[in-house]
Amino acid sequence: LRSPPLQVRGPGLGVIGVSKGAEVALAMATFLPQVVATVWINGTAFLHGNPLVYKDVRIPPIPYFTERMIFTEMGALDNSAIFADPRDPAYSASAIPVEKIRGKVLFVVGEADRSFNSKLFAQLAMARMPPESGRLLSYPGAGHLIEPPGSPLCSISSIRGTPRPVVWGGEAQAHAKAQEHSWQEIVQFLELHLGPAATMKL
Fold it and tell me: What range does the record give for the signal peptide (predicted)?
């Protein structure tokens, strides 16, 4: 069977990103005017680890402070302490210039995120964005990896580049409820700003 070629309906694009992907998604919304709807899930609003280079723009990163890594009783990595306080004036140049965003951004936060303080990053971004361009959904007890409903809670997993599994946080019941509610909100958000999804014929 041959699948029909994928087509972008347009005129605007939607972007969804989780963790580092949310950082990238926010940068795309900042610099690419065709991105009109962005779903940011437990990300940051500053460059970390690697610089952002786009045309004549270069945003320096905040370094990771790996010496602050914490090992849990199970031997997993808790990375929550390796991120510097983004409110430190020394890191202001690493902020993604979200004041340039012309689309809409839905920030989805798990308050039990053990990777970094996602709620703080979302609040800092919204404080600098154009009025009414951002909305925050914050879920007590939800961890870092908020996924579609029905996905099991992933509180610890291995990722490339780390010597041991990483702790993501989250309480099973609260996380499941967050996934159910946030998914409905994400779909409504994308349909509002991109139009309803077309029906696929198989």
Answer: none
Tell me, yes or no, if 118 is annotated catalytic: no
pLDDT digits (tens, 9 = 90+) for 20-71: 999 999 999 999 999 999 999 999 999 998 999 999 999 999 998 888 888 8
Is residue 4 assigned to a domain? no
Q: Does residue 7 form part of some domain?
A: no
CATH number at residue 162: 3.40.50.1820
Write down the residue that tokens 């902020």 correspond to. Answer: 95
From the list 48, 78, 144, 182, the catalytic residue is 144
Question: What's the total number of domains in the chain?
Answer: 1
Residues with Cβ within 8 Å of residue 60, at least 6 apart in sequence: 47, 51, 93, 94
First to last CA, the chain: 11
90 SS3 class: helix
Residue 86 lies in a domain: yes
pLDDT tens-place string over residues 65-116: 888 888 888 788 788 888 889 999 999 999 999 999 999 999 999 999 988 8
Domain of 65 in residue numbering reads as 13-194
Distance CA 105, CA 1 (A): 38
Active site residue 88: no
Could you tell me the pTM of the whole model? 0.89
Residue 146 burial (CB count, 10 A) = 27
Whether 113 is catalytic: yes
Which entry of 78, 113, 155, 175 is annotated as an active-site residue?
113
CA distance 46 to 125: 9
